[in-house]
Design a protein that fits this description.
11 helices, 15 strands, Aspartate Aminotransferase, domain 1, Aspartate Aminotransferase, domain 2, seven-stranded mixed beta sheet
């Protein structure tokens, strides 16, 4: 591609940090992971952070640490990557899907109607680098005695009303290469809940506090010191990365927003958006379908992606579990969404080329 949809920003600092670990001989989880956890907790504004092997294991560990188990229900969104819901299934619990609003996020006004005696948690997803209405969600959770597990896998540094995502309930982050910061593969849990923190430590390391003594059934979900070293350096750069994404998104909003039939991605009121993905909607007024636009952008060597083409309750794995297509807004948006490059590696001429390509399609 002439312009890639994502481009990890790895500098000399990360390379030097990796070599330091390689030379130390301490390659598995060790002091670098511990420092990364401390730095990440400070950045998010929580007492604790627990590094894991990826964002999916972060979600699973967080759910298990809060006692989510077989027979429980967890309310979440169908418009997300499948790991958000699969992590619930891993615990033996069942995800309950609530429809979204046109900002791509779970509709908090629909949550209470989905609560049953089996409901134990709400799992909002801060999709694309945005932030859910945590004021409403936390109020509902408090009223009904529910746990809140924030899927912040795409929202490193985003905020709701000035407070960072991942600090309202227990947060879960992915550190995959396409994210706003990366360690290669990795995850992070953030929390102020000491019992959940202590259980998370056990769950990620075979249920062991003392080596070769195992208190509960646990897993090998640890992060390596190689990844921890990269994460320390990436976290230092995250504010700069996010600012570049915001600047790129503002330019695309300004220019693409002038084109009939395109709905641009503007941050909802109260949200500090960090644009993990810059996602527009191609409506019928544009004159071409979303898939036709995608094909033309690909032909023009502009990387694009559809996040996500099918709601989770329409995925075969969930249909086989008895789920029904009952989220009409999610259905509509999956036919319209298209994500464009917004990463910090873009040059101004890249952004101008993207805009020019859309302008030519619109003629």
């Amino acid at each position: 591609m002439k312009i890639n949809i994502a481009a990890p920003q790895i500098g000399q600092e990360e390379k030097d940090a990796v070599m330091e670990v390689m030379n130390s001989g301490m390659l598995a989880q060790g002091p670098k992971v511990l420092q990364f956890e401390e730095d990440f907790a400070k950045f998010i504004g929580t007492k604790y952070a627990i590094a894991t092997s990826n964002g999916t294991t972060a979600l699973e560990v967080a759910l298990r640490a809060h006692g989510i188990t077989e027979g429980d229900e967890v309310i979440t969104t169908p418009f997300t990557f499948i790991a958000s819901a699969n992590a619930v299934l891993y615990t033996g619990a069942r995800p309950v899907f609530v429809d979204i609003k046109d900002d791509f996020l779970i509709d908090p006004d629909l949550i209470e109607a989905a609560i049953t005696p089996k409901t134990k948690a709400i799992l909002p997803v801060h999709l694309y680098g945005s932030a859910c209405d945590m004021t409403k969600i936390m109020a509902i959770a408090q009223k009904h005695g529910l746990v809140v597990i924030e899927d912040a896998c795409q929202s490193h540094g985003s905020e709701w009303q000035g407070q960072k995502t991942g600090s309202f309930g227990t947060g879960c982050f992915s550190l995959y290469p396409t994210k706003n910061m990366t360690v290669g593969e990795g995850g992070m849990i953030t929390t102020n809940d000491q019992p959940a923190y202590e259980k998370s430590l056990l769950l990620r390391a075979h249920g062991s506090k003392v080596r070769y003594y195992h208190d509960i059934l646990g897993y090998n979900y640890r992060m390596t010191d190689l990844e921890g070293a990269i994460g320390i350096e990436q976290l230092k750069k995250l504010p700069k990365f996010n600012a570049a994404r915001q600047k790129n998104a503002a330019y695309l909003n300004e220019e693409l927003g002038k084109i009939k039939g395109i709905i641009v991605q503007v941050a909802p009121e109260g949200v500090t958006h960090v644009y993990h993905q810059y996602t527009i909607r191609i409506t019928p007024d544009f004159g071409l379908t979303r898939d036709e636009v995608l094909a033309k952008l690909t032909e023009a060597s502009i990387g694009t992606a559809v996040f996500y083409p099918l709601p989770l309750n329409r995925q075969k794995v969930y249909e086989d579990l008895g789920y029904k297509p009952n989220t009409p807004i999610a259905d509509d948006l999956t036919a319209q969404v298209l994500s464009l490059p917004v990463h910090p590696g873009l040059k101004q001429e890249d952004l101008e080329y993207i805009v020019k390509t859309f302008q030519e399609m619109a003629k």
